[in-house]
Design goal:
By secondary structure, the chain is of the alpha+beta class. It is built from 4 helices and 6 strands; from the N terminus they run αβαααβββββ.
Length: 219
Amino acid sequence: MNRRPTLLAALALTATAALTLSACGSDDDSPAKDKDTIAGADTGDKKSPSPATSAPASDDRPKIELPSDLSYTFDWPKTGNKEKDAVLADSEQSIKAVDQAIVKQDALDKAYLYYYEGEAAAETQKFVQDYVDHKAAITGSYRFYAPEVNVGKDGTASLSYCEDQGKAFVKYLETEKIKKTEVTAKSYVIYHTSLKKNDKGVWVIQSIVSQSGSAKCQP
């Protein structure tokens, strides 16, 4: 999948999914579902809307509204380079946009489709749908740090960064039960994202991979 991980260990996503779900646990009797629709995948006569058709214009960025029980710290100092800072700013919004989709229980929420395309959008749809299927959301606080961004002359960029999931948890909507887990090495995750600048001037995520327990991200 893409974007940063959002803990839901019970929902077993594929190893190629960029979103790791190790920081928070959930009940072992909640198996992953394998029949989620993938954004942009061929489903016969019907196809999911693509990011290109779902996203608003760049001067009308989607509004992201998150509940008060979610908080974020981005230790991403500005670089002084216009394009690098734009990559960081758009990536911050992409992270929050996926969380909004989870909170809204909408696997095709337009906000994240604004920042994700192709494989990344497809994997994100599946990721969010797992939460929807299990009537689960997220709560707590996230911290992002140690960013490394590179921008090419061809309109592409790469960004790696760490995430601390130690204070973020899964919340089951029907019972309001919060599944808290012990902080371990796996609570610290590194992400590697590939982006491109689209025709609206937005740095959109094309692919993302992650690794929990990264030595680089340990406190």
